[in-house]
Amino acid sequence: MTAEFACMGFAPQEMIQVVAGGQTLGGVHSAKHPTMVLPNTTALGVADFDSTNSTYDNKVVTGWLSRRYNPEPLVIGPDVESRSDLQIFSSDGNKTVSSMADPASYLTTCSTILAKMIDTVPAHDVNPYNLQLNVVGDDDMQFSGAIWFKTTSVPKSAISSIQLACKDRNGADGVVIGTTILGDASGFDDTFSMSIEPDINQYSTREWLQKLLCRRSDL
Question: Is the pTM of this model over 0.70?
Answer without folding.
Answer: no
